[in-house]
Amino acid sequence: RPKNFPPGPLLLPIVGTILHLTLDNPLADLERLRKTYGNVYSLFFGSRPAVIVNGVKAMKEALVTNAKDFSGRPQDLFISKVSKNGGVVLADYGPRWKDHRRFALMTLRNFGMGKNSMEDRIHGELKYTIDTLEKSIGKSMSPQVMFHNASSNIICQVLFDRRYEYNDDFIKVVIQCFTENAKLVNGPWVMLYDSFPLVRNLPLPFNKAIKNYETCQNLVHGLVAEHKKTKVTGEPRDFVDCYLDEIGKRSDDGSSFSEEQLIRYLLDLHFAGTDTTSNTLLTAFLYLTTKPHIQERCQEEIDRVLEGKDQASFEDRHQMHYMQAVIHEVQRVANTVPLSVFHCTTQDTELMGYSIPKGTLIIPNLTSLLSEEGQWKYPHEFNPENFLNEQGEFVKPEAFMPFSTGPRMCLGEGLARMELFLITVTLLRKFKFIWPEDAGEPDYTPVYGVTLSPHPYRMKVQPRATQ
Ligand code: HEM
Prior knowledge:
The structure is a single chain. By secondary structure, the protein is of the alpha+beta class. It contains 16 helices and nine strands. It has a single domain, classed as CATH 1.10.630.10. It has helices spanning 27-37, 55-65, 67-70, 78-82, 95-112, 118-135, 144-160, 169-185, 188-195, 207-230, 239-249, 259-290, 292-306, 321-334, 366-370, 413-430, and strands at 40-45, 48-53, 140-141, 343-344, 349-351, 354-356, 361-364, 431-434, 459-463. The strands form three sheets. A four-stranded mixed sheet has the order 1-2-7-4. It has a three-stranded antiparallel sheet with strand order 3-9-8. The chain has a two-stranded antiparallel sheet with strand order 5-6. Helix 6 packs antiparallel against helix 7 (144-160), helix 6 (118-135) packs parallel to helix 16 (413-430) and helix 12 crosses helix 14. The protein starts with 26 loop residues before the first helix and ends with a strand.
């Protein structure tokens, strides 16, 4: 370890500290190491040094106070190879990332306003979700495909101005690729790829992720080609049109906006906006279905606040303290992006008194915040009281950072929060969700990957008597 580098377990030649991790799910090991070495410690993936950042204090010092030093992205990991360093999620800290991030935030904001607002798009998609659930009344159904397609369609409407039927081949292929890659990318084979350059050319399972990415790239390429044929300059229908207009505007200044970038950017946004939201919704309905007293209390609040209204609006959340607490508690236990997206130091820097050289891999362990002792009333159980004060009002503890923090924080947070609220409230208002008698004990342990997801489950659906 370099001088004054964060401590960590014994380093072995060639393997580094990799033997301290269970490669198919290292989360429990990372917690065990935090207990031994403190909130800032180091690991070596082969010869590559990494610093694991845990707990609110260290996370804020790194990602907010010293944001500039800690906002890079490593450029030589497997995922960067898969996406050929394009897009925004994995772009290194610098002008290309900044320009693209600003552009996406502005475009998402513009599509959030006006007549065909984001709320309308979400409610539009909810009609199909409701239809799917109505067809399942009296039977037990698996909600996986439904929630993946709903989240995917909401972002597809913003990106491509279109939605897909739930059995459409395009969307089936894309979602299959996304869900596979979400598990491959933080999985054991990729960990080996990132740690040991010698294995990179072997025909190991990580090559499937590259193929999946290429498949999606080709499909999206077709959509961009179609847009180019039909678009009218200055009258953007969606994100693709806005970006193509932007390429036109910036054609002379050596800009980083290009069609190749656009395709990777679309895949980034589509993936980042689908797998995360749908896995959080799956977690929400797993808990709501298996904890009927919580479901009923949400429904009482929803009925009271929405009495006489056709549909929920995002503004209604301010009158729904309990519902808000439940959704946030779902996000806390869902821990959907457990190790965030890996960061990297942009220059030699310091963290909690330790020295960290430029180029060090930084792993923000968001898991450590979401169950940090001292930050939560009930860190290790599902309990909406974690977000309620003595008066029963909704409060958000500072350790609630499922979207991370600082300049690289999730740029889809606003959209994701709106989706989670409107979808959960609308479905709970209309239906009662029941855990099937023959389904056995619910399994709350998540399946590990770059995103965590619940194990597949089934639920029964009944129309609500009040509807
Ligand atoms: C429950 C849903 C979601 C969760 C929990 C989540 C969480 C995260 C996290 C932890 C990061 C990494 C931040 C960092 O590196 O510090 C991230 C980045 C990102 N997310 Fe989300 N996300 C969600 C939904 C969305 C949606 C709906 C979109 C699409 C609009 C989106 C787009 C992005 C993008 C583009 C980045 C990269 C930002 C950058 O590198 O500058 N996310 N998200």
